[in-house]
Amino acid sequence: MANKIGRIILGIVIACAVIAGVYFVLPGQYKNPITQTIQMKTNSNYSEIVDVLKSATIPKNKEKEFGAVFEAAVGNPAWTIKEISVDDAGNGSYDVYADGYKTTISFENETNDDGMVTHTNAHVRLIFHITKDGKEIKIGDDVIETGKSAYPATIEVDESTYNESDKSTYYQKTLDCLVELGG
Model's pTM, two decimal places? Predict the structure, then answer.
C-alpha cells in the first residue's frame, strides 16, 4: 500500500516538473498570456493596476486608450506585472509590461531622409514604472486616471529600445504607429 502511495506522489511530482519545464521554455508569445491569466487569478492588485493603465490614453493621441489600441495592433497581447518593492497591503513599486507580437512597426528614419525604420513580425513591449498607494496609481508624480495620458518609461521593439527621456522621436513614432495599427 505504501509503495502505491509513493508511486502516485512520485508521478505527481514528475508531472508538475514536466509542466513547469515546458512553461519555462515556451517563447514569450505563448508564455506571457499564460502568466497574465495566472496573475489575474492570483494577484489581488493585478486588475486594479492593469485596468487603470489600459484605460489611460496614449500620449498625443487623445481618446485612444492603451488597452484597446494595443490589443488591436498586436498579436497575443499580454499585460503582466512585476512587484519591485511592495508591502503587505500591496502598496509600493511595480513594473507593468504590455507585450505583443507579430506586428509591423514602420516610421521615417530621423537620420536618413530617404529611409524608413521597419520592424516586421516584431515583439513590442511597453514598460510602465508605477507606484501604488491605496487606490492611487502614479507614474512619477502623475496620477493615472481614465482618459489621462500615461507615458511608458520604455518601449522595446525587437532589439531596439526607446526611452521616454531620449531626444529621439522614435518613442512617439512607435506609439503613433501602434495607434494607426490599432485604430
Answer: 0.86
